[in-house]
Amino acid sequence: MALAISPTEALWFLPFVVPLCLWVMWSDLSAMRIPNVAVLTLAAIFLVVGLIALPWADYPWRLLTMIVVLVLMFGANVIGVMGAGDSKFIAAAAPFIDPGDVGPLCFIFAANLLACFVTHRIAKHTALRRLAPNWTSWDRGRKFPMGFALGATLIAYLALGAAYGT
What we know:
Elements: H1 7-31, H2 36-53, H3 59-78, H4 84-93, H5 102-124, H6 146-164
């Protein structure tokens, strides 16, 4: 699978994005929240590293993507389709995605969502739950910590871009 993102671009973003995404995943699993500071930090990473990683002509278009996605995700939050933290994280993550990779990203997200959901539910209903007994996500009924899948998706996308980008 070849991705439109360049390996150089993905490698510039990866060392900054991975720890942040791991924090978002942990936070959403443990407290069912994605901290605003994490979302703002993700956006700041793009604002700074994007200047180095991207061609000058692409940078403003990626920033515009963040704004458009933020407006769309705000609407999704208002009508109750997703949580505010998830919406803001998606908007902050949007400029990291090459526009030519929207299709493959949907497949990466679908696979991650399924894997994260199954993993969470298995852990919730087995002895694995004792490894983190106080996580809020265990007792939220049908609600799922989407930051788990969203963070994993951004990491996977950039890692695949580093390996299979064009």
